[in-house]
Amino acid sequence: MARPRRPQPPPEAARISHSWRRRSPTSRRSSPPGFPFKEELDRIAIYVPGNPDFAALQPIAATGIVNPEGLATALEALVPSLSQPGAADGPSGDTGGFWAWFGTVVKIRDLKTLNWADLAQAAALTARSGDLRSAIARLEEPGGDLPPELAQWRDKASQRLKAEGAMAQLSAALTAVISGTP
Prior knowledge:
Radius of gyration: 24 Å
Structural class: mainly alpha
Helix content: 55-70%
Number of helices: 8
Strand content: under 5%
Largest sheet: none
């Protein structure tokens, strides 16, 4: 007994899906920073109307979103402008005994003298490898408030991560439409 044939999706949907995966900002291929994807997103909306991920991507579709390499380059460009740590104060008072031992166990950082430039450079290397979550975590590791320029970079990197998640969900929804699965 022959199996019933699955209805074929419209050829346009398959072409859009291929174009979306190939040109989307989350593609592993290196896309230029700020690559707009509004045209593809508008065509996808026809096949997955009302998808919440579509609504999340709409505001950034016209301008695009920076790829991890672009974010790493932007972070490296911030390094020279970040304040360097002040000179360490010389030892004061008793440097032996309990406090000397305590200094070997606990590292106390003064956020005013933290070397943000070194931290940003290390985070840029992590971002360049494509691991934006770890780059953000590296910047937030010391705790406290980030310098304003690093906070702006962190927000852009977080926006990129949210967009990647929304694009993956939207791509899965489009693939389900093409394959005919609910």
